[in-house]
Amino acid sequence: MPKITGGTVVKLLIASLLVGLVLAVLNIDPQNVLQSARDGAEALIEMGASVFGWAFKYVLIGAVVVVPVWLALYLWRYLRGKR
User: Fold this and answer.
1) How far apart, in Å, are the Cα atoms of 70 and each of 21, 58, 81?
2) What is the pTM (predicted TM-score) of this model?
3) Do residues 29 and 23 make contact, with C-beta atoms less than 8 angstroms apart?
4) H or E stretch including 38?
5) To bridge 28 with a disulfide, which of 23, 58, 59, 79 should be the other Cys (CB 3.0-4.6 Å)?
6) What is the C-alpha separation between 48 and 12, in angstroms, rounded?
7) Over the stretch 58-70, which tens digit does the pLDDT of each residue have?
C-alpha cells in the first residue's frame, strides 16, 4: 500500500479547495450532491426491480421442479460413488 506523505495531504487539500470553489460558483452544495446520488441509486434499484421482477416469479416456479430433481440426481451419484 502506498505511503501517505505530507505532500499527498497538501495535494488533496489544494484539489479539495479548487473543486469546492468551482462547486460554489455553480451553486452546488454537498447536501445536493449527496441527495442526487441517493436519488440516482434509488432510481437504479427501482429500474432493476421492474426489469427483473417479472423473472423472479418464474425462477421460483421452475426451482420447485429443478432443485428436487437436481438433489435426487446428486444423491444418486453420491450413493453410487461417482462424485
Assistant:
1) 61, 18, 16
2) 0.44
3) yes
4) helix 30-80
5) 23
6) 36
7) 888 899 999 999 9
